[in-house]
Amino acid sequence: MEQERMARVLEQMKERNMPQLLISDPATIFYLTGVSTEAGERLLTLVLKENGKHVAVINKLFPLTKEQLGMPVVNVDDIDEGFGMGTLVEQLDTSLPIAVDKNWAAHFLLDLMKRVNQPVSHFDISSKITDDIRAIKSSEEIQKMRNASKDNDKAIGELAALVPEKLTEEEMGSRLLDIYKSMGNSGFSFDPIVAYGANGADPHHMNDDSVVKDGDSIILDIGGVKDGYCSDMTRTFFYKSVSDKSRDVYETVLEANLRGIAAVKPGATFAEIDAACRDYITEKGYGEYFTHRTGHFIGIQCHETGDVSSSNHTQVKPGMIFSIEPGIYLPGEVGVRIEDLVVATEDGCEILNNYPKDLTILG
């Protein structure tokens, strides 16, 4: 068990009057115990209690022990009534409020509510606590994120070097996995995006059999997983040549990226950082083509709770790690996105990606 992290959870439980938390999210379980597991449709839940008498209710398919999790283990079986929900309820004080993970399967939650037979107000979301704690990275976590991003800098350089081979987008993605494996990454942090030309005008384009053509923009949005922590970065290149219009789009996105990064400092709101990017793109006449938020939080998961958007008025705190990734997407023509990860510091931020951002023509 990660004692310091668990202590922070217990402190927040007391402050927020959440006497018992049900933790089922694999990433949060990993964060609190160091144990990596995926339960699928089965029951695997940490029951955290304000009095410290925690217990794990786990399907016996998963041979996890008290020594691994740092708390007693109660096993349930696939054939147990309610898939073991009755056993879980036995571990709770049903007279006290109960908080559950935001992503807990609906059939588990509804069954629990029926068994407890309390009003909806009796229940809350445990992720309010764990997400806030996970958002502030420790020095050890920040170093792991640095290491992951350093690998990602190398990976995108190796991938860009393959463009003259005129591989399809799908082939580029396959080669990227080999690159990550060679660096000791366990795999992708998300399905990579390789988008040639007009395909780049779809921000979440799915790789296909397209082949790069002269004058195409090339979006490479990639990330790996190193020591349990994610990287994520986007660079946009051009093949053989670049039109004046595409150059203007690129330079606009690059300046927006730099302005967003410059706006990161403790006390600034995420809405203000978003505006630093968005207002400039709008000023340059491309506002309607910047179709997504400016960034997302990242750590154990590629997309963690928290974002850089006009609706998020939360203030930046040191230790938060998130992306700055403005983009412009002209349908049928060109897409450009430039993304860096930053970690907020006491007086600004540290950029975790060092791969160059100057406009680059490949081939």
TrEMBL record:
Q: Which organism is it from?
A: Vagococcus vulneris
Peptidase M24 domain: from which residue to which, for each copy?
143-346
Q: Upper lineage ranks?
A: Bacteria, Bacillati, Bacillota, Bacilli, Lactobacillales
**In this record, what's one Pfam family?**
Creatinase_N
Q: Which residues form a coiled coil?
A: none
Q: Which GO terms describe its molecular function?
A: aminopeptidase activity; metalloexopeptidase activity
- Where the record annotates domain Creatinase N-terminal, the positions are 5-136
Protein name per Swiss-Prot or TrEMBL: Peptidase M24 family protein
**What are the transmembrane regions?**
none
Q: Which PANTHER family match?
A: AMINOPEPTIDASE, AMINOPEPTIDASE YPDF
